[in-house]
Design brief:
The protein is mainly beta. The protein has five helices and 38 strands. The strands form nine sheets. It has a six-stranded mixed sheet with strand order 1-3-4-5-6-10. Strands 2, 35, 36, 37 and 38 form a five-stranded antiparallel sheet that branches. The chain is globular and about 55 Å long.
């Protein structure tokens, strides 16, 4: 009996020592990623932003820092910190955290009223900032939602919430309005957060002119949804007393309804954004001094020779290239192109015409490691493997844009009056053994004029294979889909995909209405795979932001989005900001 007891004790000590060793190993990974970010960016790590700029970049990698391109790019290390934070939580799961996954109905942690008709927008994303990534979530973490409404004394242009995590993590009202501001215009595109989480940048329109706004707030925030504070424009930004903002009208006096700003988190403090006339604007500095538009060296730069609106841009700091899609306003084939802009030379390379209908409204998805881009068209010109008027996903090499149609795979029946939301790589791709020629899968919602369908496109050594139509997510012909968001939950070794449909949901947990769904894609999805669960959301959801917070008692990893239509939330009827547990979307 004594020998048995000693054996049990020895085994217990071994398990404890192994758990501590594992925790130390995960801590080291996260600390190393933070130190690498600080070394690459020459700045102290102050927290983790999650916004549309980072959403447009996905780094394939084999091991941390496997090439000089990555070692010297703070944006890569931000991505590593995000993933290492999830691994950190794996080491010390706590009761009530998402370490223990149960089969429960999908649920919302909270909803918050944004205003009548308020929404982030179909292809746009809220922006979140987490002050800590290696411990208990901070109740000072915050998330910002644009409302797409013209700001007035009773209607905010944008709203930030803090106190995000349910009890016992945060006390009092969850969430709380951190600040609600009237900036004097209409903010219809995604908001960008500064690397230290103290400022935001966004484009707003007033009448017909677009203006880049850079805004800071006091520690106390201020304003309410019903009575937002009016933020004054300051000519001495950023030394002005908060809340205050700098307002930089586009130099060519153009407007902008389709291009959200892209901020370069690699350390240049530069922002790029397009306008409705096909012109690309560069702003520098943005957050580190008095914001300015660059009006030398060829900028503002005409990118579309036919004067058509630009999509969200995306920038590769290693190559100095900005990639941006072009919208379309007719049925001819002389537009709907992809552009590569060499910033130093102020020169433009343009693909062959590839997209009819509304053209490209979303940003290309860029893998800077493999140096490839992916973008989808809802009404393709045709060529390669894509029939004319079909929906099509095309892959381009960064250096192979000029007059190219890229490599295409069809995504079902096309539609002339809609756009396709962006897709996402799975964890197999992101952790591929050869990051320069990765293998894995790309998921996207296609078939825009038929029943919206999730497609899996296999990728082998950086080459696309034939797409598989996995399942429809709506029984309504022509219903739209949100962009797909991927998140690998290292606690359960589960790879989740989140996507919404605008109406006619037909998956588990949510039917007939607009719905947000979660798919378990740990094993690549095959034809007939269903969502694990769903949540009703009126009109479908905006782009979906995911956080890795999961260490605190009763706090799960979360998804954040806004409804696209009015629904009941927080005792009112209107546009809603939503936090939902990833737990409930399984």
């Amino acid at each position: 009996m004594k020998k048995l007891c000693w054996a049990v004790l020895a085994f217990s000590l071994l398990v404890t020592r192994s758990a501590r060793s594992s925790a130390d190993d995960h801590r080291k990974r996260l600390d190393d990623a933070i130190r690498s970010y600080e070394a690459a960016g020459h700045t102290r790590f102050r927290g983790l932003p999650e916004d549309a700029s980072l959403r447009h970049l996905s780094f394939s990698r084999a091991v941390d820092g496997d090439s000089s391109r990555l070692v010297n790019d703070p944006t890569y290390w931000l991505d590593e910190i995000r993933r290492a934070a999830a691994r950190q939580f794996t080491a010390t799961p706590m009761k009530g955290s998402f370490a223990k996954v149960t089969q429960s109905a999908a649920h919302r942690d909270w909803t918050a009223f944004l205003g009548q008709g308020a929404t982030v927008g179909a292809l746009n994303f809220p922006a979140k900032f987490s002050l800590t990534v290696n411990g208990t979530p901070s109740c000072s973490d915050f998330i910002v939602f644009n409302t797409s409404l013209s700001g007035t004394s009773t209607r905010p242009s944008l709203v930030a919430f803090n106190n995000l995590y349910k009890a016992p993590t945060c006390a009092g009202t969850v969430p709380a309005v951190f600040w609600a501001y009237n900036t004097g215009g209409n903010v219809v595109n995604s908001v960008i957060i500064s690397p230290d989480g103290t400022q935001v940048a966004f484009v707003q329109t007033t009448h017909v002119n677009a203006t880049l706004i850079v805004l800071k707030w006091p520690s106390a925030g201020g304003g309410t949804i019903a009575a937002p504070l009016e933020v004054p424009v300051s000519h001495s930004y950023p030394s002005c007393t908060a809340p205050c903002m700098a307002a930089l009208p586009f130099a060519n006096k153009a407007t902008d309804f389709s291009s959200a700003p892209f901020y370069d988190y690699s350390g240049s403090d530069t922002l790029f954004v397009g306008d409705q006339l096909g012109v690309l604007h560069e702003f520098h500095p943005v957050f580190s001094g008095s914001p300015q538009e660059v009006v030398t060296g060829g900028f503002p730069l005409t990118v579309s020779q036919t004067g058509r609106p630009l999509s969200d841009p995306v920038y590769d700091s290693a190559t100095g290239l900005v990639f941006v899609g072009e919208g379309h306003n007719g049925t001819s084939t002389n537009d709907g192109t992809l552009h590569a802009v060499d910033i130093a030379a102020a020169s433009v390379s343009t693909s062959a015409p590839i997209c009819r209908g509304v053209g490209f409204l979303g940003a290309p998805l860029l893998d800077p490691t493999a140096q490839t881009l992916y973008l989808a068209c809802a009404n393709d010109v045709g060529g390669g493997n894509c029939p004319a008027h079909s929906a099509c996903l095309r892959q381009f090499s960064e250096t192979g844009i000029s007059q190219s149609t890229g490599t295409g795979v069809p995504l079902g029946a096309g539609a002339a009056t809609t756009a396709i939301g962006g897709g996402a790589f799975d964890n197999l791709y992101l952790t591929s053994a050869d990051p320069a020629a990765p293998s894995g899968n790309f998921y996207i919602c296609g078939n825009p004029s038929g029943l919206p369908t999730i497609y899996r496109v296999p990728i082998t050594s950086n080459l696309m294979g034939s797409p598989l139509a996995i399942n429809t997510v709506s029984g309504t012909t022509g219903a739209g889909c949100s962009p797909i968001t991927e998140f690998f939950n290292d606690t359960t070794n589960t790879d989740w995909l989140f996507v919404s449909t605008s109406t006619g949901g037909n998956q588990t947990g949510c039917t007939s209405s607009g719905c947000l769904y979660g798919f378990n894609a740990t094993v690549p999805l095959n034809v007939g795979a269903n969502a694990g669960d769903g949540i009703a959301v009126a009109g479908g959801s905006s782009g979906i932001i995911v956080d890795n917070i999961g260490a605190a008692t009763s706090t799960a990893a979360n998804v954040y989005y806004s409804s696209l239509a009015n629904q009941a939330c927080a005792g009112q009827m209107g546009g809603c900001a939503v936090q939902a547990s990833q737990n409930g979307l399984q």
